[in-house]
Structures are given as structure tokens and as C-alpha cells.
Amino acid sequence: MYAFPVTLVCAAALLPGLAHAAAPPSPQQFGIARAIADYCSRIDPAHEQRFVQQARTALGNMSEARFAAGGQTLAYQHAYSFIGSLLSKASPADALRACTDIL
Questions:
Q1: 1: helix, coil or strand?
Q2: Could you report the per-residue pLDDT of 55-96, keeping only the tens digit for each?
Q3: Per-residue exposure over 57-75, b if at least 16 CB sit within 10 Å of its own CB, e if not
Q4: At what angle do helices 74-87 and 27-43 cross, to 10 degrees?
Q5: Residue 47 DSSP one-character state
Q6: Residue 90 DSSP label
Q7: Angstrom distance (rounded) from CA 61 to CA 21
Q8: What is the C-alpha separation between 39 and 99, in angstroms, rounded?
Q9: I need a surface site. Which of 2, 36, 57, 66 has the fewest CB within 10 A?
């Protein structure tokens, strides 16, 4: 029960560090950021733009077009699916609380 908020908050806590990285984000980092933004946008659609902007900023202000296009690599797809499967196990209340904490 408590694993979900901890997982989401831990993953989200890593995102700001990506913005300061010298190298572009890895496909796995992109997949994680994108999965969190997409999931939180579904849970709290009123703040979709803020979740997307938070992820884009964490990824080094990735262009809107590149962010929207998604990743085409297998590594991106695995990271996105893995994080998505973890997030899907959350209760609605835990999910909303964790997503709100990201903002």
C-alpha cells in the first residue's frame, strides 16, 4: 500500500537532477519522466500542462515536439511500461496525493 507513493515520489525526486546533467537524458530517463507525466495527467487532468512541463524541465527543457513524439527505443518502452505498471497499482487517493506532491 505504501510502496506506490514512495515509488512515485522517489522517481519524481530524481527528475530535477536530470535537468542539470551534461548529457541528454537516456531513453530510460525519458521513459520514466514521460510515464509519470502521463499517469499524473490522467489522475489530475486539470494540471496536465504542469505535469508535462515538470517532466520537460527535468529532461533539460526538451522541445515540446520531441516530448510529444515519445521514445522509439526499446529501452524507453521498457522503462515507460515498467513505471506505468507500478503506478497502475496505486489506490486513487494515493495516486492523487503523490502526483500533487510532484507539483
A1: coil
A2: 888 888 777 787 777 778 899 999 999 988 888 888 888 888
A3: ebbeebeeeebeeebeeee
A4: 30
A5: G
A6: S
A7: 12
A8: 9
A9: 2
